[in-house]
C-alpha cells in the first residue's frame, strides 16, 4: 500500500487526526532511527521511515488515513543495558501518547529483551513482538459534548465513592447484560439513580488508564483486576468498552462522563504515574523501555541495568526528567480538557515527589502542577506514601492537595475496637486533623477520611474477620497486610452468636456515622453501604470474579439487612450535606465553636485527655460559630450538635452538658437524631426532647447524635 507522506509537525506528541490525515510524533533522544509501523486489516505491517526530527522528536504526517488505524513504532539505537539503553527494533512499541490501545499482551518470549532459554543467556532477544503485543490506535477527537460542564462541587460539599468500573455493574441485573462491567454500564440510569439516592457527589474510578494483564497471573487463572499496572497514560482501558477497542472505548468514556455531569456527579480518576507495566530488567519491552529507557525510568546509580524502585512493582518513573514531567502533565491536561474529568487521585504519590532520594514537597512535579492553569483547577488527591525510605508523607503535601488520611483510618479503627490511648488522637482526626494540615495553610478538606478502601478489608469484613483469607490469590495467604486492625472490632470474648452479630451490625453503623460526622472529605468504598464482602480477602488485586464484584442480590437471608444499611448510609450522607456544622470549610478556632466533655458533662481537662484507658467522650459543635459565609456573603448559621461516643465494652450513662465553660451556655433542648444501637440508626421523632443536664444511656460501643431544638 502506498501512503502519502510528508514531514508533519513535532507537536503535539502522539497521533493527531485532523480530518484529512494523521500527524505522528514520538520523543526519543537516544534513537538513531525510528520507523512508524501501520498495521492493516489483514494484520500486515507497513513500515515507514520517520526522517524528520526536531529537538529529539521524530515526526511524520500520513494523508488519507484516519480513526481506527492501528500503529506502533520500532526504534533503532544502542542496546547496552549496563548504560541503561534498551533499543531493540524487533519490538513493536506502543506510542506513549496513544489515545486508544487495542488488544493485550500474551506473555510470549518475543516481548522480552532476553531469551527464556538459559543457553542463550546474555544474548539480545530478536524475536518480533508484533503479534503478541498491544497496538496503538488513531482516534477522532470529535465528540458532541452538548452543554456539558463540570459540577465543580466545593471540597467541603464532596462525598467520594471509590468504585471499580467492572466490579460495580458486572452482576447488576438492572443493567443490560451487554453493558455490564463497562463505561456505559456504569452510566446506566439504574446505577446513576442508586448513586444519587445514596448522596454521592463524586465517583473515584479505580485505574482506567490502559493497563496490562500480568502474564504471570494469567498462568494461574487470575487477572490484574485493580489495574495498577499502567502502560497507556492517555488511553481508556479497552476491556471496559462494550462496543470495541479501536477508539470506541474513548467515545464510551466520554458518554459516561457526560452522563455523570448531567446528574451533578463528578468523575475523579485514580491514576498511576509512579511506575509502568514494563517492570524491572526482567519485565517486557512494550513502550518506554524501547523508546528511551534512560529518559523515562529512574535507574540505579552505577548500575544502570537495574531500576530504582520505590513502588514495589519493579520500576519508578524518573521525576527529574523533563520528558517524564511533560508526559504526566500532558496526560493530566488531556483527561481534563478532552475527556472532561474533574480530578485525580495519585497512587503512591510520594514517588512523584522523589527527584533524587528524598521525598521533596517542593519537587519539580508539584511546582509544575501548582502553576498549571488547567491541572491546578481540578481536584487533586494524593495517596501520600510509597515503599521507599521516608515514604510515609501524610500531611506533607503542598497546598492545592488533599490526601488519603491513613492516620484517620487507623485511629478510627482502633478507637471502635477499644484500644487504649487513642482518645486524644481520635478527637483530632474527626475534627479535620489540624495537626497535619493547618501549619501549611491547608484546611480540613486536605483530609480525605476513609475507613476502608480497595486495598484491604471491606467494611463488612473488617468487623467480621480476625484474620485475612487470601488463599484464592495462590500465595498461601502470605500476601496482603497482616494486621488490618480488625479483630472483630471488639467481638473478642463474646461467645453468644447473636450478640456477636448484633455488635457487628452496630460497628458498621459506628464506622459509617463517624466517617460522615467527621470534618474533612469522606470517602466510601463501593459496596460498604450494602455489606459487600470479599470473604476475608484483603488483597483482591487479582480477583476478577464474585469475590470482588458488587453483589446486588438483596433477596437472600441478609437482604433486608443490606437494604437497611443502605438507607441508613443514605440518610447519613444527606444529613451531613444539609448541615454546614458537619462539613466546615475552616478548622475550629477555639472561640466557643467546639467543646469536649466527659460522660459527666464536665469540660475535659488535660487529665481526661491523657487517660490511657478512656473510651468515651462528647463533642459539642456550635452551629452559630461557623465563621463562614455563603456565596451571597451571608453568615452561615446552622443547628448545633452533640456527638456522644462510647467505645467501652459496657453501656455508659452520659449527662448532657450545660455550658462549654463558666460563661458560655449551650442550647437547652435537644433531639436524638442517630443512635447506632438501633438497626435503622435514625430514631428521629420516636425519641422526645432531651434537656441539658439530663441523662442519656448509650449501649456498649455505640454513638448518639443530638441536634439542638431552637424552639
Task: Using brief descriptors, characterize the structure shown.
30 strands; Immunoglobulin-like; TIM Barrel; alpha/beta; 20% helix; 711 residues
Structure write-up:
The chain is built from 15 helices and 30 strands. The strands form seven sheets. An eight-stranded parallel barrel has the order 11-12-15-18-19-20-21-22. Strands 23-24-25-30-27-28 form a six-stranded antiparallel sheet, with helices on one face. β6 and β7 form a beta hairpin. α9 (406-416) packs across α10 (423-430) and α13 packs parallel to α14. The chain is elongated and about 90 Å long. The model has no long low-confidence stretch (mean pLDDT 94).
Task: Give me the secondary-structure topology.
Blueprint: E1 4-6, E2 14-17, E3 21-27, E4 33-39, E5 45-50, E6 52-54, E7 57-63, E8 70-76, E9 100-102, E10 135-137, E11 160-163, H1 165-169, H2 183-186, H3 189-198, E12 202-205, E13 209-211, H4 215-219, E14 230-236, H5 248-262, E15 266-271, H6 288-296, E16 299-300, E17 303-307, H7 322-337, E18 343-346, H8 364-371, E19 379-382, E20 401-404, H9 406-416, H10 423-430, H11 434-437, E21 447-449, H12 459-462, H13 497-517, E22 521-525, H14 559-578, E23 594-597, H15 606-609, E24 616-621, E25 641-646, E26 652-655, E27 669-675, E28 690-691, E29 695-698, E30 702-708
